[in-house]
Amino acid sequence: MTDLIHLSADALAQKLAAKEVSAVEATQAYLDRIDAVDGAINAFLHVNTDEALLVAAGVDKARTDGDTLHPLAGVPIAVKDLIVTKGQPTTAGSKILEGWQSPYDATVVRKLRAARMPILGKTNLDEFAMGSSTEHSAFGPTRNPWDLDRIPGGSGGGSAAAVAAFEAPLALGTDTGGSIRQPGAVTGTVGVKPTYGGVSRYGAIAMASSLDQIGPVSRTVLDSALLHEVIGGHDPHDSTSLTDPVGALVEAARLGQVDGMRIGVIKELQGEGYQAGVLTRFHESLELLRSAGAEIVEVSCPNFRYALGAYYLIMPSEASSNLAKYDGVRFGLRVVPEGMPTIERVMGATRAAGFGDEVKRRIILGTYALSAGYYDAYYGSAQKVRTLIQRDFAAAFEQADVLISPTAPTTAFKLGEKLNDPLAMYLNDVATIPANLAGVPGLSLPGGLADEDGLPVGIQLLAPARKDARLYRVGAVLESLLEATWGGPMLAQAPEITGGK
Amino acid sequence: MAEINRDDVAHLARLAHIDMTDDELDRMAGELAVIVDSIKSVSEVAGDDVPATSHPIPLSNVFRDDVVGETLSNEEALLGAPDNADGRFKVPAILDGE
User: Fold this and answer.
1) Domain boundaries, chain A
2) pTM of this prediction exceeds 0.90
3) Best label site of A275, A339, A449, A458, fewest CB within 10 Å?
């Protein structure tokens, strides 16, 4: 029953609850799909076949016994390989952690297990989530299901591609500067970065602790809301975790209402540097929202032009500190040079062999920005810019209930095209980074295909901190209006994938 | 162009404990100069009157009840270590023999 894999998570959950299909059938259908197409996509670094089927069988038995189950029980999910899982390897896409297994589960993984969602496996990413194309994975790039010669975005290209290629109905991602939303945009899927602190990061391997956030990846807005409610909420293991309740996100997505809402178009996130086809689709979305009763206003966020610069000082600074723990002592790789080396020489050799180019580049950049004589000029200044960006958001949210922009300036580019030009690669995140700097939530949803290349365009919605529900409320409306114009989900237009394992 | 030469990168690489070949140092110096050039305008944007933001949503005094929670066993903590002995992480010499 291959149609099982094309169901939304919500539709699958309903069929499971009605006992029209079993969790084992659904999980097996996805495992078969992974087997058939992942040789071409390379979304998975590890496939968790036995455990996933065991969990699914447990759900089926519980349902037969009449036990009360979570609404998503038996709905399979893929997990970005930056999030630790007991019983499966976690690599962070790096040679330095190859073969390592975590002795504990991330809080979000515990929540998936509590909801009894079978974990299909671990998805590919740029090494330590550093990149916008998944080409910086030590285990080979993931390919975009819309065009196998193109990038699936990054760092969470594996999670987005798995969901786009119907290898999973849901996935977990992490977003430090756009790593959930930009892959969502270029693969025609939905991705959400919750409010900073809204979802526990305990067990997410840290890149930049003041920016990192775990969030949902899915094919529909409602599905992201369903997953967001599973993983959200306070966790004493993460001291940055907010104590607020998760909120009625699913209700907001089901309600889907924009009549009378003010939607702010960010003046600085369009125009120069944005592909014509991206802007055309973006303006169509604005028209649709206006036709549904929303008031479209223009807002200006003048300091957003410094966001990329501030991000590329703060993120490497925090990463250089966070990645100091890979020293060949407590976990992962240890390279011992010849002779009778001291621990210092072992660290130098281990980190030289274990880290890839982009990780080294960011560690060195961060070490530079934090070093004596530069700290105030770079790291200190970037933190001040962060304040200015927060003020821009505050002013914009005085004028609008949610903000809107293209998620990424272009559609998916070719593999290899920007690999040797770090700056060009960094520009992919120009529209997603401000949300991370300010801690506000953001959602990307499919906005159609660009005329010039037929590739997916993403529309980004941004809401004030702790107002994640607004993203779902507006996102669901825009999604249904767009699907009405397309005559069905955008992914139905994606090409067949050929070339299995 | 920002002035980051190969000696600067060599110094940073030592601080970061990453061995680098001469080729790597040269390449990294060039790349860093370009990146720093593109982001250094950040240092000219905000005046002294703008406070720094270290955390997007500030929380203070985050405490929990002082009760023992779950902890890893000694075996679990050592499970991923490259080497161990007597229930401890085993490392090469910390000081040079001289």
Assistant:
1) 2-303+387-493
2) yes
3) A339
